[in-house]
Amino acid sequence: MAKFEKGNEGKPKGATNKVTQEARELFLITIENEVTHLSKAFEQVREKSPKDYLDLIAKYAQYFVPKKTQTDTNTNLTITDFNLKEVIKFDKL
């Protein structure tokens, strides 16, 4: 790689370096080898505390589910926009 010179933009924004890419790949391999243990651990947490289980899933999911970057500002909903009985499920309380 050439020495930095004025006017050289360098790496593109968001580009990962080789070490970062290798570290991510190693992490994925490690996780793949631990799937059965992770599954058992998640099940134990679920049985012991459903609340802690949901917290764990939420924390885990943030690495796999894209975060919403745009928000919808239309908050003018009326009771006719959805079926309240379906949303609340009174019959199952």
Description:
- By secondary structure, this protein is mostly helical.
- The chain has a domain at 17-67.
- It is 51% helix and 0% strand.
- The chain is built from 4 helices and no strands.
- It is flat, with a radius of gyration of 23 Å.
- The model has no long low-confidence stretch (mean pLDDT 77).
Key traits:
single chain, mainly alpha, 93 residues, flat
* Helix-strand string: HHHH
Question: Helix share of residues?
Answer: 40-55%
**Runs with pLDDT <50, length 5+?**
none
The number of E-state strands comes to 0
Q: Structural class, please?
A: mainly alpha
Q: Sum up the overall morphology in one term.
A: flat
Largest sheet: none
Give the end-to-end Cα distance, rounded to a whole number of Å.
66 Å
- Give the overall average pLDDT: 77
Rg: 23 Å
Number of helices: 4
Tell me the strand percentage band: under 5%
Topology readout:
Layout: H1 18-33, H2 35-48, H3 50-61, H4 84-88
Short summary of the structure?
With 93 residues, the protein is mostly helical. The protein has helices at residues 18-33, 35-48, 50-61, 84-88.
